[in-house]
Each structure stands twice: as C-alpha cells, then as structure tokens.
Amino acid sequence: MAEALGMKVVFYDILPTLIMGNAQPAENLEEVLKTADIISLHVPETTTTRHMINEHTLGLMKPGARLINYSRGKVVDNAALANALIKGHLSGAAVDVFEQEPASKSARFENPLQGLRQVILSPHIGGSTEEAQESIGLDVAQKLINFLDQGNTIGSVSLPEIQLPAMEGTHRILHVHRNRSGVLSEINQRLSDHGFNIVGQFLKTNEHIGYVVLDIEQGNTPLAVDILKDVKETIRIRSLY
Fold it and tell me: What's the pLDDT tens digit per position in 163-214?
C-alpha cells in the first residue's frame, strides 16, 4: 500500500521475511530508524520489544520523521516520544495503543501525548466491531478444534505453540510438563524400554512449560499413557487417537 502511494519501503525483522514488492530489507533496526521518514511498528509485546522505541532510538530517527504505533502500547516509551515531539526532533506521531489503557469507557484517560498538536490519538477498537467479534469467535472455535483433534496450539497463551498435521497409522499422545532438563530423554527412554517405536516427535517450551507431541506406532496406547504419567515433572497427558 505504501508503494502504491509512491513511497520507498525499508523494513527490518528479526526473522527471515519474504520480501513483498520492492521493499528493501535493512541490516538492523538502527538502519531503518536512520533512513525512514515514517516509521511504522508491527511487533508483538515481549521482553525484547518493551520500550524498543525509547529516548535513544528516537534520537536515531531523522529530524522531522513521523512515528506510527498500531502494534502494542508498551513497545514505545510515550514520555520519551512526547519529549521528542516537544523538542521538534519528530514532526508527528499517530498512536492507538498505550502503555496504560483505560480500565473502562468511564475511566479517565491520561497520557503524555495528550494535548500535542502534531499527534493523532485513537482508541484501539479494531477488534471490537461486530464483524471482528464474529471473526474472532470463529477463529477461536477453529483453534480449539485443532487442539482437540490434532494437539495444535497455535494462538495459545498458556502452552508453547505447535502446529503439526495428523499422521496416519499412528497414535498421538500429548505430554505437558514443567520445563526442566532431561524430561524428553526420560520420555524416550521409558517408551523404548517398553518396545514402543516413536514415529514422530516435537517438543516446544516456554519459560515454565514444556509441550511434547508424540506419534507412536499403533499398539497398546493405554500402556504408553500410563508409562508417561510417571515421567518426572509431568503436569498432564492426553491420548488423541
């Protein structure tokens, strides 16, 4: 869309990204900040993105540049952004996500960016329309079906994200455990000791939880489940099919 408006697009991503149109990848975030006249943020809220736009990174931006944040509120230090605008280093900003969102529509909204003439502030309500709520409901229902039928956890906030297709001629077992070293080795050893052949296996962890999807050759699945229940650090185990 930006290219259709005659703009030259430069982008940076921490992961390899398929280039669209004539967009040019940058070596790092600093290169984008120093190059672009308009900075648009498209990142999740994580420990690494919190205040990624701060006093230092704002100082790297070109004089007169503009910042758009429609991603997550905590990605930008709003106080530092307000200071950059007041000093005239940036010529404008558009924001619809904030570090402190109002608790309700009757709650008072306070933000350092309020009252600045070169700032557009808008409520982050794109997901609150009737059409969006209907789409969200369908999406959530489909994700639950995928978890129940295949063990996939894409979009989960409580389990590490895994997405695997169903494998014919196997039994699939899901194993959730506390994220400790040696759990996967114990799973494999216990199954091997009882003659089970693992056809496919995938482990994903987050800070606290480990999630293993196991596809084993058809056989005595209840026995395999009982064996894995005794694995140290097990939280929950379930046989899918």
Answer: 988 888 899 999 999 999 999 999 999 999 999 999 999 999 999 999 999 9
Residue 156 structural domain: 130-239
**Dihedral of the CA atoms 177, 180, 186, 191 (nearest 10)?**
20
Domain boundary among 124, 148, 164: 124
Does 101 participate in catalysis according to the annotation?
yes
Tell me which residue has tokens 């619809």: 96
E-only strand ranges, the chain: 10-11, 24-25, 38-41, 65-69, 90-95, 119-121, 170-178, 198-205, 209-217, 234-239
Q: Based on the residue annotation, tell me whether 72 is a catalytic residue of this protein.
A: yes
* Phi, psi dihedrals of residue 66, rounded to the nearest 5°: -125, 150
Catalytic residue among 72, 172, 175, 177: 72
Q: Is 186 annotated as catalytic? A: no
The answer to whether the pTM exceeds 0.85 is no
User: Could you say which of 82, 107, 124 is where a domain stops?
Assistant: 124
Q: Per the residue annotation, which of 3, 55, 101, 134 is the catalytic one?
A: 101
Q: How many domains does the chain have?
A: 2
Average pLDDT over residues 133-150: 93
Q: Please pick, among 50, 51, 89, 124, the residue that the annotation labels catalytic.
A: 124
Q: Span 68-76, mean pLDDT? A: 94
